[in-house]
Structures are given as structure tokens and as C-alpha cells.
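so my prof wants the structure for this chain in the C-alpha cells format not the other one, which i didnt know existed until like an hour ago. anyway here's the sequence
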Amino acid sequence: MLWLAPPAAAQVTVQGYIKNKSNGQPLPGATIELTSPRKLAVADEQGYFQFTKLSGQEFTAEVRFVGFAAQQLSLRADQPIEIALEEIATLTDEVIVAATRASLRSATTFSNISKGAIQKQNFGQDLPFVLNWSPSVVTTSDAGAGVGYTGLRIRGSDATRINVTINGIPLNDSESQGVFWVNTPDLASSTQSIQLQRGVGTSTNGAAAFGATLNVQTNSLNPSAYADVVNSFGSFNTWRHTVALGSGLISEKFTVDARLSRIISDGFIDRASSQLQSYYLAGGYYGKKTLLKAIGFGGKEVTYQSWYGVPESRLQNNVAAMLETAAAEGWSQQQTDLLLQSGARTFNIYTYPNQVDNYQQHHYQLHSSHQLTPQLIVNMAAHYTRGFGYYEELRTNEAFADYGLPDAVVGSETISFTDLVRRRWLDNYFYGLTYSVQWDRERVQSVLGGGWNRYDGNHYGEIIWAAVATNAPKDYRYYFNNGVKTDFNIFWKTTFQFTDKLSGFADLQVRKLDYTAGGRENRQFLFNIDKQFNFFNPKLGLTYALKSDQQLYASYSVANREPVRSDFVDAPAGSNPRHETLRNIEAGWRLQRSAYSFNANYYLMDYGNQLVLTGAVNDVGAAIRTNVADSYRSGVEVEGSARLSPQFTLAANATVSRNKIEEFREVLYNYGTNFDEFNEVQNTYRNTDISFSPSLVAGSVLTWQLPSGVELAWLSKYVSRQFLDNTSNRSRALNPYWVNDLRLSYALRPPRMREVVFSLLINNIFDHEYESNGYTWGYLAGSAVYRQNYFYPQAGRNVIAMVAIKI
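here's what i got, hopefully its the right format
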């Protein structure tokens, strides 16, 4: 008898798109699960999902997304399906951030980054590196590998000009107005979504947005219990360990979520190590009309200092130039030898074992939302942040007088200088209340919001060791000063639907600031600040719907911003730094369809009295910033994504811009041929480039999804030349760079597990040598000009592997 094997069943593919029923927008991160065979898929940025290698023609599935009603349906293999989910009545976490986020009707330039996109790129590097491929974003790392002190610029604006909120609560430091991401390590692991608004953006709480707004939302409701264990390890001894747990809905109303993380890295730069710890804990009550949520998160960082950078002479391996650098810096023979003998791209001037930044910061938030009527929702939030820590440093040959101390007398010898170790402390409190009232009718959506916040911070220094006894009293602080800042704002923004196609947007904010500070500064001078500011920041815009999936928009906004602490403290006697004003025009076209999307935007950011470094210093040698009357940024941004086939997806963006100061006066100091005189020299430049403002920034991510569960992504980033100062001189500039990364992942879904994902990130795959940040200074000696450039080299080819087990 002849036995014939039955023919193999034909394998089929099921695919489709998941969107919001009310506005047609995709729902990235939505899950769809087949009941037989049991398989799970997650929608990508376009809401697209796919199942491959299935047998049969019809399948039963359940679709879920937070804040939307679950839907059960049948899928067929013969054609793609569009699934529209309906929002549910129960309040979700999105109401917490709704007041400060832009919508399609708000005539604002923005991008949304979903949890899925964040998790794919979260290998333990700081949040700026997770956002690196967003439009107009440039990132940098002091240690060169994305762990430790990192930063980002958006449209050329630095961290002090980017408003950052977490769940609507301000994160920017009240005095410096910067954000130090090292204080919130692994925040990405507890982030639900991020909205990046470019330009002035919509009204929010905290510092003025003078380049962009980053609106971070932490984890939202997860109705199912879960446990995640994530470990990554890679080059430079980089390790990340994360454990996260969630209860899911208890009694259909309560949730508890928790996370612990630890990240360590030696860094690419010599001794630029980081030891980071962080936590996240949240408990929530979700009712049909009421939401209560308590959130605590924070961390501690111990980071070896690599702030000084690498001299250009060391990068070029130029011995004569290195000796000139050492002489200009006044370095000792030991430091000079270190410069000559270290790696060309990894030099770090610091060698003292405890030359570290040691700081911890803890954030506590309590959110309450209540739906009074179907059209009216009230949100309230109280917050409290506690931060304290120091950076420790060895100082050689320091004068006792610089620490308010008399010379030491040893026998018959008077000693005026000593080596010492000092700690400079920051001890602060930040607390306040924010609120919003949201009113939503068929043609009118209106929000009344605002907040009151208070900052109280102490700055002081201590000497913990000296080679020569200092005769300092017990608990001696060689300087101490305190700053108190209150920030009150109220905003009202309304969108009105004039016709089925045309809507208008108005956003009016009043902001009142009081800042007092005083005491003795590090350089042993007394200061006193008592400033008040009252700002009115209006924003107006129109949006026109060409079709249901296409929009034209245009807006005009004004923002005002107070000077930072150092502008007041370091200002020369008798001078008065003025506040800055930004007038912002945004105009663009948005297209959103199931398989592709495209945004094109023109912007003009016209500054009045922008504060910039000119090279001038005050009477104690501190660099000062000066107001320049007229400057601007103008450019075009394009951003798009497309599903080229069921396997290939391409996302890309590019920004082309001009960034100019109408008239800039550089200040140089002439010390004479024999360093026996002193006078000031000014050089005037017109229509010159703003520092750190590349004329072209472009990024792309090409993703290849294989049927076997393997995903490959090619990530590219190009940044054109950036000048270190405002003179447009190419000898003081960061060279253009084009960096490519490769990300691989393989997802398994074993029984009784959500998934197990193996990932590999190969950074800078072509081993390109580049620098992403730097600074410059110079002086004259008679007719000779001396310049010193310092750079922050980034790592060459390096690898991080990650294993994520999700139960």
C-alpha cells in the first residue's frame, strides 16, 4: 500500500490598521490577540499590525488599547482590515496631560513618541538618546556613550530654553532653567508617551519654551498584571538592570505599579564612570468619573566628572600645540604629562579618585481628576521635589584668601597657598500646585489652567581636606547663598470650530515671577537679587481641513523669558540683564493616512534681547552673557513615515534652517606682549551664525520586519557644521557628522508570557570619529592671538545587548 502525505496547508498573512474611531488617528501600541492559534501583535507608529505563517482563512481576535473599549472581531486573510476603537467613559491618565498637550486643532508643530517606540530604543542610555531621531533634535554626551551627563538641543536651542514637564509638572531647574537627565535615570522605562512641541508651543507650566517643549507622560493604566525584567550590557562595562511590576486592575478600580533600576558604565572618556539608581512607584484609583493617582520617582547618581572636554591639540596629536594648551591653562607638569600621554579622544584632565558629582532627586506627585458633567473635567495636582548633593573636586595651589581664610603660619613661615579638596553643595526644595478645567462641546474645546510653584535652594561650599591646615572653624562654609523663586501662571486656551473645515485656536497666558537671592558666592563676593517679572504670552492660530486626513495650519505666538541665575550673579556692577522675547510663526501641512504620514512646516523664531556669550568676563573672571538686540531662527522641517511593504517601514525627517544674529560684538582681552598690560578689544560681526545651530539636521529609521519575529532597524543621523561661538569662524566649529546605528531584535511569545525580546544595538557602526559638543576661549598677547578649542568626542563603534522578559 502506498501512503501519500496530505498536502501542507497554505500559509496566510493577516494584517490591518488600528485607529481612533473619533478622529481617525492611528493607535500605536494597541494590541491584537488571536484566540486560535494564540498569537499577539502590537500596532506600530501607523497603527499597523501583521500576523504571518497562519493556517486557515478566518480568525477570532481581541483588540485592546488603554482608554478604549476592547473589541472582539473576526479577521480574514484575504484583505487588510481597518479596526476603529471607541473611547470609553472611564477616566484615564491622558486627562492628566491633556491641558498641556497640543492637538490636531491647535495649530502647533509637534511630534508624538509612543511607548512602543520608546521601549525599542531604551537600552539604558539617557532619555535624550532615546529621542535622537526626532525632528530638529541634536544630542550629546559628556562621557561619550549616552550614560551620565547628556543633553539635547532642539532647533539649536539648548536645555535651558526647552520646557520639560512630567505629567504637567515642571522639571526644569528654577534658577538655571536647565534639565539634568542624569537625575532621573531610566525614566524611559516608566514613560507612556512623549510629545515634542517645537517653537513656543502651547501654554504649560514651568519655564518658558524658547525652542521647544517636551511633555512626558509616565505609565498609564495597564489593566492586566505584569512583571518585566530587563537586563542590558555592552561596551565600556555598561550594565542596566530593571525590574518592573504591576498589579493590573484590582476590583476594577485600583492599580499599583513599581520599578527599580540600576545603570553603571565606565564611559568612553577616561574615568567618566556613572553609577545610577532610580525608582518609580504609582498607585491609582480609576472610577467612571474620578481618577486619583499618587506617583513617586527619583534617583541617585554618582558620576565621575568629564566636564572639561578634550583640547583640540590633543585630538590632533600636536605636541607643540598641547604644550601651548598646558601653558595657557596653567597646568602642572603632572597634568601636562597626562595630556601628552593619554588617548587622543579619551583624555580627561581629572585624576583625583573622588572627582565626582554626587546628587539625588526625589519627585512626588498627587493627581486628581473628576468629570463633573459629560462636558466638564477638573484636574488638580500637588507636587514636591527634594534635591540635594554636591560635586567634589581636588584643587591645587589655591589661595587661602579665595576661601575667606587668613594665610597659615607654620613656625616662622607664612603660607598663602595649599592643595585642598572641596565640595560644592546644592540643597533645594520645589513644590506647588497645578490645575486645569477642561470644557468640551461639539464646536468648542476650552481649557483654563495654570499653577503656582515655589523653589527654595541653598548653594554652599565646604573644604573637606587641605594639605596645609586652614584654621577654619568647625563646619566652615566658605560661601553660602540662598535663592527663592515663585512662579505663578494662568492660561486659557480655546479651540473653536467655525465651520466643518475651519477651526481657530487662541491661547493666552499670564506669568508672574518673583526671584530673590543673595549671600556670598563661590568667588567670595556678596550679591543681592530682587527681581519681579510680569509676562503676557499670547498664541493665535487657524487650522483648515482640506480633507479628513489633511490639514493646513498657521500660528503666531509670543513668549517671554527671564534671565537665569548666573546672568544676575555674574553681571558686571551696574548692569542689568533684560528678559528675552520670542515671536514665533509656524505654518504647515499635515497628512495622516493608514499606510503613510507626512508633515511639512515652516518656522520663524524672531528674538528680542537674546542672551548670548560674547567672551566678556566680569571682575572676578566669570563669563557673562549679554543681550543682543536682534536675532532669529528660520527654517523648514519635513517629517514623514511610510509602510513601503508589509515588511519595510521608513520614517525620516529633515530640518533646513538659517540661524542668525544681526550684530554681534566679540570681546577679547589683550594682556600685552609680555603679559604686563590689560585692555579690552571688541570685534563686530554682522549677520553671523548663532552658535550650536546647524543649518541641516536629518534623521531616518528604516525597519525590516521578518516573518520569523526578527526586526532590523537602520538608524541614521546627520548634523551639519556647528560653530562654537557667534563669529562664524570655521576654525572654532564642530565638524559635520553622519552616524549610523543598527538595531536588531527577536521577539518570542512563549506560553504564559507576554513576550521575551532579545535586542542588540550597534552604535556608530562605521566607527566614525566625531564630536557633538564643545566650547572655545581666547585672548591676545600684543598682536598675537591665542585660541583654545575644547571638544566632547563621542564613542566609536560600540555595542549594547538587551534581554527583556515580560510576564
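also thought this was worth mentioning. The longest strand covers residues 376-399.
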